[in-house]
Amino acid sequence: MFISNNWKDFEIIDASNGEKLERWGDIILIRPDPQVVWEVDEDKRSPLWKSAHARYIRSSSGGGEWQFLKSHEKRLPKEWKVCYNGSGNDLTYKIKAMGFKHTGLFPEQATNWDWFSGLIKNSKRKDTKVLNLFAYTGGATIAAAAAGASVCHVDAAKGMVEWAKENAATSGLAKHPIRYIVDDVLKFVAREVRRGNKYDGIIMDPPSYGRGPNGEVWKIENELFPLVKLCMNVLSDNPLFFLINSYTTGLSSAVTENILKLTLQAKYGGTIAVDEVGLPITNGGLLLPCGNSGRWQFA
Questions:
Q1: CB-based burial of residue 207 (10 Å sphere; 0-12 exposed, 13-18 middle, 19+ buried)?
Q2: Residue 138 C-beta-side C-alpha neighbours within 13 Å
Q3: Secondary structure (3-state) at 104
Q4: 152 three-state secondary structure
Q5: Vertex 167, ends 248 and 31: CA angle to 5°?
Q6: Rounded CA separation 276/290 (Å)
Q7: What share of the chain is helix, strand, coil (3-state, %, to 5)?
Q8: Which of 92, 153, 183, 221 is the most exposed place for a label (fewest CB within 10 A)?
């Protein structure tokens, strides 16, 4: 398992009965998680369950809402910040309680930030160009930029791209060469092929299902392999890395490995590592699986 265990500002304190108890800086949240199928005995549960600022409650009709817990005198702030320096750079991310339980950051991805940051820093090329697709609020974008890469950040949601700009600014990267694009990923990559633009590293974090800014439908089982094949046309002659993240339950890690073998490895050789991504749980020493990642790197 690829484990993100270098956090200081984030921690899964405990997990039981479909929920996880998390610390984001000095804010404690309770969020549902379908992977938490076990139950911890009451006398072994962390006492901090009673000190949470808020809990996300799912609705039987779909969606849900955040509920402030009366046990804590401090209300949940509108937004706050957490820092990560596991890869040797101080990365700062804005956090807020969003709809459908999200906070604007997936902390389990820090293990991947460390991985490609090391590749970028150790590369002898003058300018490593990275393309980040489905880039969300810029977790990976900021990590790659801090490691020294020029980054093209692409996401279909304008609000998420603006959030990524804020994260770059708070991380001291406002003037760093980061290109922000609001567009459908497939259409953008197709245009980059026609323009002849090339990248040394590609990161993609595709959703199971989604829509582009003009209503374009994305289904991962239909679109992932064609997208990876398309991306092969914007890779440089000696690419550095390729990362595919997947949160889709029905998409096995073996599928990701097969895609990388049929595309990246078939053309460039190199090595592939595919595994679950996880976070440590402080109470009880368990690991929480959070999807899977497929990594290819030029050997």
A1: middle
A2: 33
A3: coil
A4: strand
A5: 45
A6: 7
A7: 30, 30, 35
A8: 221
Rounded to a whole number of angstroms, the distance between the first and last alpha carbons of the chain is: 21
pLDDT of residue 200: 98
Closest CA to 242 of 215, 269, 216: 269
Residue position matching structure tokens 């596991």: 86
The sign of the dihedral angle between the CA atoms of 183, 185, 189, 190 is negative
Question: Is 76 in a helix, a strand, or coil?
Answer: coil
Count of Cβ atoms closer than 10 Å to residue 298 Cβ: 19
Number of helical (H) and strand (E) elements in the chain, helices listed first: 7, 17
Distance CA 184, CA 156 (A): 5
Q: What is the pLDDT of residues 209-262, one digit of tens each?
A: 777 667 777 677 788 999 999 999 999 999 999 999 998 766 789 999 999 999
If we measure between CA atoms, which residue out of 261, 80, 249 comes closest to residue 170?
80
Residue from 58, 61, 52 nearest 24 by CA? 52
CA pair distance 74, 12, nearest whole angstrom: 20
Task: Kindly tell me if the per-residue pLDDT of 73 is higher than 60.
Answer: no
Q: What pLDDT band is residue 60 in, cutting at 50, 70 and 90?
A: confident
Distances 14 to 3, 68, 251, 286 between C-alpha atoms, Å: 16, 19, 27, 9
One-letter amino acid for residue 244 of the chain: I
Half-sphere exposure of 212 toward its Cβ, with a 13 Å CA cutoff? 15
Query: What local confidence, expressed as pLDDT, does residue 36 receive?
Result: 96
Tokens of 127: 């300018």
